[in-house]
Specification:
two-stranded antiparallel sheet, 111 residues, mainly beta, rod-shaped
Length: 111
């Protein structure tokens, strides 16, 4: 016979009937399956230094600016040691979480 499972569900023939189960990333009865937004429910595995994007049926994680990694793990980029800072040559660079600060060297002034 024909089943009434959702397009986001798997159908298992249990003769003479069938069962429907929502696929990963969806929730519901099997005949009706709704996307689970892991980002808004907090069930994602993204790092605290990453942004979570719901992609139906799952999600993606991307490290924020100033961090590098997979999205589930994000490490601070030390702009001072990598030379990617924006400090003037007459300023001292100090690495901070996700960014850096610049301070004028003695005898110099500016921003």
């Amino acid at each position: 016979g024909t089943h009434t499972c959702s397009a986001q569900a798997t159908c298992t023939d249990t003769k003479p009937l069938f069962t429907c189960a929502c696929m990963t990333g969806y929730t519901g009865t099997g005949t009706t399956c709704l996307n689970v937004d892991e980002c808004s429910t907090g069930t994602h595995t993204c790092s605290a230094q990453a942004t979570c994007t719901d992609t139906k049926p799952l999600f993606t994680c991307a490290c924020m600016t100033g961090y590098t990694g997979t999205g589930t793990t994000c490490l601070n980029v030390d702009e001072c040691s990598t030379g990617t800072h924006t400090c003037h040559r007459n300023a001292t660079c100090t690495d901070t979480a996700g960014t850096h600060t610049c301070a004028c060297n003695a005898g110099f002034s500016g921003d």
